[in-house]
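F.,

This is the one I mentioned.
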């Protein structure tokens, strides 16, 4: 009995210190100025405690079953408190519009600031940015049209990979977004995504005409194969890091997607199966013929 009491007391003291579900409900009600927006949201203090267990202020936190968005809220609060640079990725299937109406909306208000039901003004966590991406299905057939579409739609993922989201002028020029897009966060992260390979020569010329500040630009080039047009970038080779798309994306997909048999292999297997069945039927017919002959001879 004593052990049970000790365990209960320890559990109660932990929740008193690191939050109860009621605390999460109160927080969400204050942000949305209404109750029952989400059932049993976790309190930010609980998640903040869990995020401090690995002592890494530059970590990336993934919540692949996001609900009300507490994980992102807690991440932003913790960064504000200890000066960390944690990033957070939330994933949800948007069931009952939860992502649009709760998860995203909650954290947008946390960043911008909000007013509680009591009229208290809560200052926003303005040093953060929030982006919302939707997934879509793409064909796995490697036609040029499908490959170009894959590169365009993958640009947002490349922004996440390189931690750069601000679109900017490239060497003082506005780029046609159908030809190329350039991103620069002003802190040393630069990315150029080229959709039309025929524009490479002009883009290289623009880069060569600007002063080299020693910061390399990550350059993704659409290429039907795996060649990132290295020779074309020879004049600015020291200023860029090249990657051929979509071959790099397909290679990444290969590691996570189930292998698919080529169409010709499916057809060959069907032909082999049909041939095997025909041979079996023929053998069965021959067997019946032999049995009939044996019966006649025996009679």
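My design for it:
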């Amino acid at each position: 009995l004593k052990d049970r009491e000790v365990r209960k007391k320890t559990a109660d003291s932990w929740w008193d210190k690191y939050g109860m579900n009621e605390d999460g409900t109160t927080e969400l009600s204050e942000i949305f100025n209404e109750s029952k927006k989400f059932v049993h949201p976790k309190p930010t203090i609980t998640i903040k405690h869990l995020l401090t267990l690995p002592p890494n202020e530059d970590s990336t936190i993934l919540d692949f079953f996001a609900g009300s968005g507490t994980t992102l809220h807690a991440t932003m609060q913790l960064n504000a408190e200890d000066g960390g640079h944690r990033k957070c990725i939330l994933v949800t299937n948007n069931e009952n519009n939860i992502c649009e109406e709760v998860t995203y909306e909650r954290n947008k208000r946390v960043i911008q600031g909000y007013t509680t039901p009591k009229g208290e003004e809560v200052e926003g966590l303005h040093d953060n940015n929030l982006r919302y991406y939707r997934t879509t299905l793409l064909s796995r057939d490697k036609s040029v049209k499908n490959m170009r579409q894959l590169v365009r739609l993958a640009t947002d993922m490349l922004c996440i990979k390189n931690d750069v989201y601000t679109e900017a002028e490239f060497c003082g020029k506005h780029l046609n977004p159908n030809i190329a897009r350039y991103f620069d966060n002003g802190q040393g992260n630069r990315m150029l995504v080229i959709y039309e390979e025929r524009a490479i020569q002009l883009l290289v010329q623009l880069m060569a005409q600007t002063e080299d500040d020693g910061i390399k630009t990550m350059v993704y080039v659409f290429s039907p194969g795996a060649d990132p047009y290295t020779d074309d970038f020879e004049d600015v080779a020291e200023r860029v890091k090249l990657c051929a798309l979509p071959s790099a994306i397909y290679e990444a997909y290969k590691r996570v997607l189930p292998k698919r048999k080529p169409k010709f292999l499916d057809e060959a297997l069907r032909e082999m199966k049909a041939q095997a069945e025909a041979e079996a039927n023929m053998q069965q017919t021959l067997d019946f013929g032999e049995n009939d002959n044996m019966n006649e001879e025996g009679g």
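The first strand starts at residue 60 and ends at 63.

Talk soon.
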